[in-house]
Amino acid sequence: MNIVIFGAPGSGKGTQSALLIEEYGYYHISTGDVLRAQIAQGTELGKIADSYISKGQLIPDELMIDILDEVLAEHPESAKGVIFDGFPRTIHQAETLDALLAKRNGKVDVVVGLEVEEEELIERLINRGKTSGRSDDNLDTIKKRLDVYNNQTNVLRDHYKSQGKYEAVHGMGSIEGIFENIKTLIEKHRSR
Ligand code: B4P
Q1: Opening angle at CA 137, ends 132 and 143, nearest 5
Q2: Residue of 124, 126, 156, 182 with the most ligand 1 atoms within 8 Å of its CB, for mutation
Q3: 120-153 pLDDT, tens per residue?
């Protein structure tokens, strides 16, 4: 199965993906983690990525897609199923993902949309900023990221709803409780 974990910044994509990997053992790709690893290594790509991330902007589509393509090619085990965490974030990325998966006789099976109120998103990210050391976990940048989400990414909800793939999950409350709801949805799509 190919599962997309979707939601606003701070909605818990990384948190829930970690539990999904334990449960299902699928290959996991967090585009945010891939970019942060490049930044930590001080590569050319990392410098470019940092210039966008620290301003709360998305990395340009073509660059992001090349990176994803490369990571998938390096991990043949991903052909069995992938948890996509933080990708796609634009319609163009979603269309490209369909094409990439079609080449491997696959498709996006389900999009798990973590729905969290904006006030809580801000609170979580400010809290995370106290220890994360991330250049984007400060109030100014968080607000920009939420704007970017509302203007460029949120449109994917309707995109996937129209394909019958979007499953909304109430993303507030206990991490374990949210995970139980996600598992139920995934089982529903697995048996299709
Ligand atoms: P990401 O790394 O994807 O990060 P995120 O959206 O901030 O976080 P996530 O939703 O995973 O939150 P988390 O579980 O950590 O993106 C970072 C940046 O990279 C983007 O802004 C962009 O610039 C770039 N980028 C990434 N992918 C891209 C793409 N495809 N195209 C272009 N650019 C891209 O949870 C947040 C906090 O909440 C944590 O502290 C967690 O402990 C807490 N939390 C989680 N669940 C909770 C719950 N139920 N209750 C209370 N707290 C909870």
Answers
A1: 165
A2: 124
A3: 999 999 999 999 999 999 999 999 999 999 999 9
